[in-house]
Write a structure and sequence with these properties.
Elements: H1 3-15, E1 19-21, E2 27-37, H2 49-61, H3 75-80, H4 91-96, H5 103-113, E3 121-123, H6 129-132, E4 144-152, E5 155-166, H7 170-193, E6 201-215, H8 219-230
Parallel strand pairs: 5-6
Antiparallel strand pairs: 1-2, 2-6, 3-4, 4-5
Length: about 230
């Protein structure tokens, strides 16, 4: 499956009114156990390039405070942060920080030792999340479980494994981050391996999600896609 197949799935589910009810009682369209080639940066709607760049800067800062997001802090981050504005899900912290085992560096080291490895994994979630997600009024249970990197035929592929992903805003922002990290892994690996003449290049991103979903408040994006297809 590709992004266009996911798009068509949700259009069909909308037409057929295949709703489920989420924990807040809101109608939701959901695909359980989704797996597809992430060959487009957005499923529905347009990219907010300005926000994506601001979020990338925040992730790179490794700050766990939403108040350090450049510019206006999005409401969703305010909603999930604790009483002081702290969260669990700064993805840069999770892969770069020494406090979380410097997983970016570990992946580079693993691939340098064994380019055919299946062990080059960055683990985002953790068992303690069951107890930590609501600390001090927080509501932030990390959405990305892990990302695996594999070099095949001189291309570096990523397999993104998520427990939960909002189709509209979640996918596009998470995709931007995963594409950024994939490019950074390629760059660092080629530097370490001195691959000036035969560099490894970025490959595919495979997206695997336990619950891929569209909230009722975002059905308008599906409707807009339907209207666009009629034109």
């Amino acid at each position: 499956m590709r992004v266009k197949d996911i798009r068509n799935y949700f259009i069909d589910a909308y037409h057929n009114k295949e709703y489920v009810t989420d924990k807040t009682g809101v109608k939701t369209l959901e695909l359980v156990g989704a797996s597809f080639l992430a060959d487009e940066p957005t499923i529905f709607g347009r990219l907010n390039v300005d926000y994506i760049q601001r979020e990338l800067k925040w992730y790179e800062s490794q700050s766990l405070s939403v108040h350090d997001i450049p510019g206006e802090v999005p409401q969703i981050w305010k909603d999930v942060s604790d009483h002081e504005g702290y969260i669990n899900s700064n993805y840069g912290y999770l892969i770069y920080s020494r406090k979380n085992y410097q997983q970016f560096d570990a992946v580079i080291e693993e691939l340098a030792l064994n380019p055919n490895s299946r062990r080059a994994v960055m683990i985002y979630n953790r068992p303690s999340m069951h107890e930590e997600y609501d600390n001090n009024g927080m509501n932030d249970f990390i959405c990305t479980n892990a990302v695996q990197y594999m070099i095949r035929n001189n291309r570096l592929h990523a397999v993104v494994q998520m427990r939960s992903n909002d189709v509209i805003f979640g996918y596009r922002n998470d995709y931007a981050w995963q594409r950024h990290v994939l490019d950074e892994v390629v760059k660092e690996y080629n530097i370490v391996m001195h691959n000036e003449n035969y560099p490894v290049t970025p490959g595919n991103i495979t997206w695997q999600v336990g619950s891929l979903h569209v909230y009722e408040r975002h059905f308008k994006f599906i409707e807009a896609e339907i209207e666009k297809n009629k034109a």
